Amino acid sequence: MVRKKLPKKEIAAAAGCIVLAVATLTFYVWHQAAVIQIGFQTSRLEEKKAALEEDIKKLETDKAVLLAPVRVDRIAREELGLLEPKPEQIIYEGIPPAKNHE
Amino acid sequence: MNELGLSYQGRIRKRTIILSFFFFLWFFIITLRLIQLQVIEHRRLRQAVISQSELKRSIIPERGAIYDRHGQILARSLPAPTVCLIPNEGDRPDELIARVERLRRILDLSEKDRQKIESRIRGGEKYIYIKRKAGWEEAERVAALNLKSIYVQQENRRFYPLGTLAAHVLGGVGMDGDGQSGVELQYNSRLEGVKGLSLIMRDANKRRYGWEILKAPQPGQNLILTLDETIQYIAERELEKAVREHEANWGTVIISHPASGEILAMATSPSYDPNDFPPSPIDLARNKGIQENFEPGSMFKIVTAAAAREAGVVGFNELFDCSEGKIRVAGWTISDHKKMGVLTFSEVIIQSSNVGTIKVGQRIGQERLFRTIQDFRFGRKTGLDLPGEESGIFHPLPSWSRTSIAAHSIGYEISVTAAQILQAMNIIANRGVLIPFRMTRPTLNAKDFSPDVPPSGTRVISEKTAVELTTRVFEGVVEEGTGQSARIEGFSAAGKTGTARKLDRDLGIYLASRHVASFVGFVPADRPVISMVVVLDEPKFSLQYGGQVAAPVFREIARRVLLYLRQAPQFSPDKGVVTAHFRNEDRP
To answer: Is the predicted pLDDT of residue B2 greater than 60, yes or no?
Structure first.
C-alpha cells in the first residue's frame, strides 16, 4: 500500500489551526490565571480594608475609653492636682456685666 | 481502489466522519448533562449538597453602635474570637475531650465548663462552643496549637467604653448580642440588623473543606440618644456621692430639656457595668427613674397648687390657718413638721404645710383634684422610649375614701415614678404645656439643645397659672422655703421638695423613721434650660428631708451643668462674679 503524500498546503493549514487552537487555549488559560490572580489581589485588599476599618473602630473605641469623663476627672484631680474653681473665680467671657437680681 | 470499491481517501473520510460523529455525540451528551446539572437542576442539587453537609450556622450581624447626642460612643460591637469544636467523621469522643483538656488552661475553663463540653461531645453535637468571645491572646495561643477539629471563629462582642456610665439607659445584651434591657432591648430590632447564614462544607467523609456565606448579614443601624455624656457623668457622680453619704438604699436623677422633652441624663445608684451584663444581683439593672413607684409626698403639691389655681378656688394671698400644726381628717391626724401659724396660699406651698395644703385640697373638691391629676398624666406611662416603665398607682375616683382628698393633696395614696413627677414639673416649666419625653434623636446635635423635630405639646393648664405658680410659689420654695439648699448663685430656680414617709405594708402604718427624700425643679426659672428630679430612698442619719438631702444634689448638679452649658448667670451672685469681655479689636 502506498500512502499518498498530503499536500503541503493542507499540512500548513492543519498546523495553522493547531497553533491557533493552542494559542487560543494558552490565551484563555493565561486570562483565567490573570483573573484569578486579580481576584486574589482584590480579596487581599478587601481583607486589608476590612482589617483597617476594624482598626479604626478599635482606635475610636480606645479614644472613647481614654476620654471617658470618669478617667479625665480622675487624672485631672489626682495626677494633675486640678481643683474645681470657686464660683467667684469663674470669669464669664463675652458677657456684659450682670445686672443685680431684683 | 479496493474490493469494496472505496479509495484510500474515501476510507479516511468515512472513518473521520464516523469518529467525528461519535466525538460530537459524546460532547453533545456531556453538554446536555452539564446543562441538566448546572442549569436545570442547579437549585435542587445545591440544596441537596447543603442539606448533606448539615452545618448551617447563623452569622450574627454587627450590632449598631449607640452614641450620645454629640456622637460620643456609648456602645459598640467589636470583633471577638470564639473557640469552637467541629468534630470530623471518625473523631473519637475521648480524643476530642483530650484536645479540649489541652485548651483548659489557656482558655481558663472551669470544671463546670469542661463537663458541659464533654457531655455535648458525647451527645454527638456537630458544633460545640468551647469559649465564646475570648481574648485575642487566648485565641492566638489556641490557633498556634493547630489542633484538629478546633477552630477559632470571629463573633462580635458588645463593648461599653464608658463602663458604668448610663448603664441603666443602655441596658445590656446577652451572649448572642440580643438586647436584654434598656435601649438595647427597646431598639433591639433596629440595632441587631439581619442575620446571615453560612455553610460549613464537608466532603463525603464529613471532613471540613470549605466555608461559604449563603446570605450575607446586614449590620444593624446606629442609634443616637438624647443623653449628654458630660451631664450624665455629673449627675451620676453627684448622685453616687449623695447615696453614699446618706447611706440611702438607692437614688435616681433625671435631667431633661423641658422645651424639647429630651432626656439629658438618667442616673440610678447603685449602678453596674453593662460590659458584664447581667449584673449580680439582677435587681441592680432596674432603672429606678422609671421602674420604681413611690409615694411622692410634698412634691405632689405642685399638682394640688395647679388644680387650686386652675379651679380659681384660692388667691395667692388668701390666708390659711395652720397654727395648730395638725389637722384631723376622717379619724386620721395629719401634722406639719412644725407649727407655722397663719400662711398665705403661696406660703403654704413654699413652707410645704400639709395642714394648709389639705385645706386647699378640700376647697378644690374630689372630682376637680382627680381630673387635674389625670391631666398631669399620673397613673399612665410617660411614653419614654425605654422598656419596663411603670405606670404608677392612681386609684379611680369611685374607690377614693374619705381621706383620699387629703392624702392626694399632699402626695399620699398615689404612687408615681420619678419620670412622672419630672413630667409634671415640666408642664409648669413649659408654661402649662406637656411635651412628651424623648430618649433618641434622628441626628447628632453638635452645639445647643435645639430639637431636630419640633416637639408637639398638649396644653394641661393655662399659661397664666403656670407662670404665676413659677414666680409666686416655686421660685419662693427655693429662695425662702423648704428648698433653699437648691439655690444656685446667680440663677433663679424653681422647685418643690418632697419628704414622704414610707408605708410599712405589714403593719399598715407610715413609719416616721423611713422616708423618700426628693426634689424636683428647673433652672433658670423664667426660661428653663434644664429640669431635674432627685430621689433618694431611705436616707439615714439625722438628715432625712428632701430639702436637706435631695435639694443640695439638685444644686450641685445644676451648678455644674449650667457651667458646662456656658450659661451666664442671670444676676450677680452674693459673692460677686468677675466678668470679662473682649473689646472688638482684641477679639481673636
So the answer is: no
Asked if B193 and B252 sit in the same domain, the reply is: no
Preceding omega of B61 cis (within 30 degrees of 0) = no
CB distance from A96 to chain B under 8 Å? yes
Check A98 against B571: CB less than 8 A apart: yes
User: What pLDDT is attached to residue B126?
Assistant: 81
What's the pLDDT score for residue B570? 84
Query: Which whole number is the average pLDDT over B550-574?
Result: 88
User: Would you tell me how many other CB atoms lie within 10 Å of the CB of residue A13?
Assistant: 11
A91/B580 Cβ within 8 A: yes
- Chain B residue numbers with beta carbons less than 8 Å from the beta carbon of A91 are 578-580
Q: Is some CB atom of chain B closer than 8 A to the CB atom of A53?
A: no
Q: C-alpha cell of A13?
A: 493549514
Residues B245 and B317 occupy one common structural domain: yes
Residue among B9, B73, B269 with most chain A CBs within 10 A, to mutate? B73
For residues B418-432, give the mean pLDDT. Answer: 97
**Of B223, B244, B279, which one is at a domain's C-terminal end?**
B223
What 3-state class would DSSP assign to B423?
helix
Same domain, B393 and B514: yes
Tell me, what's the pLDDT at B587? 44
Q: Where in chain A are the domains?
A: 8-83
Q: ipTM, 2 decimals?
A: 0.73
Q: How many domains is chain B partitioned into structurally?
A: 3
How close A52 gets to chain B, by Cα (Å)?
13
Of residues B20 and B425, more confidently modeled: B425
**Residue of chain A with shortest Cα separation from B580:** A93
Q: Does A83 touch chain B (CB under 8 A)?
A: no
A32-64 confidence digits (pLDDT tens): 999 988 888 887 898 899 889 989 999 999 999
Contact residues for B201 (Cβ-Cβ < 8 A; gap 6+): B49, B53, B55, B208, B209, B210, B211, B212
Q: Which of B166, B197, B223 is the last residue of a domain?
A: B223
Domain assignment of residue B363, yes or no: yes
Indicate the residue of B9, B163, B569 with minimum beta-carbon distance to A98. B569
Domain span holding position B27: 8-40
Radius of gyration from C-alpha coordinates of chain A: 40
- Answer whether the bond into residue A69 is a cis peptide, omega within 30°: no
pLDDT exceeds 90 at position B498: yes
Q: Looking at the partner chain, which of B9, B563, B581 has a beta carbon nearest the beta carbon of A95?
A: B581
Gap between the Cα atoms of B227 and B167, Å rounded:
12
What does the pLDDT look like over B169-201, one tens digit per residue?
999 999 888 999 999 999 999 999 998 888 776
Maximum pairwise Cα distance, chain A: 135
Question: In this structure, is residue B576 part of a structural domain?
Answer: no
Q: How confident is the model at residue A99 (pLDDT cuts 50, 70, 90)?
A: very low
